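Fold these two proteins, one after the other.
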Amino acid sequence: MDIKTIAVTYHRKFNLGDYESLELGCSLWAQIDPEEDAEGVTQFLYQQAKASVKEAARPVIQESIYQMNKARMQKQSTKAQTEMDDF
């Protein structure tokens, strides 16, 4: 079977707190030659789509106090767990 076109779609929903959310998505397509690695192209497109969604969400998330506090809490929880593991 010859694969000629590969399409990848990545969607993510970000919780902004106060019953607000942001949903972003990115779809990418690539035409490939029969000798190209379809799996490699798929992984590349996936990583590009994921990075695009992350970049688009960054300004909104940085403004969201809820997300920033959530990240701090997770960091503290991870640090506390690591300290307990080292005990």
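Now the second one:
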Amino acid sequence: MLLAEAAATTSTYTSFDIYVLIFTVVIAIAVIRQLINPRRNLFALGFALVSLAVFGFMDYVMISGW
């Protein structure tokens, strides 16, 4: 009975997960571009860093559920 329950569990992977990973890469590129730019927009940099932290955590939770 335990083997049947273990075989019945499925992955939580959906096609939306790919989009979340792509958005994380785009946000990371935005953070790098803000850091390289000599005229930094501190609001944009802060917003991008917070967004990158949220998406990074979301990626971690999402991938650990696979």
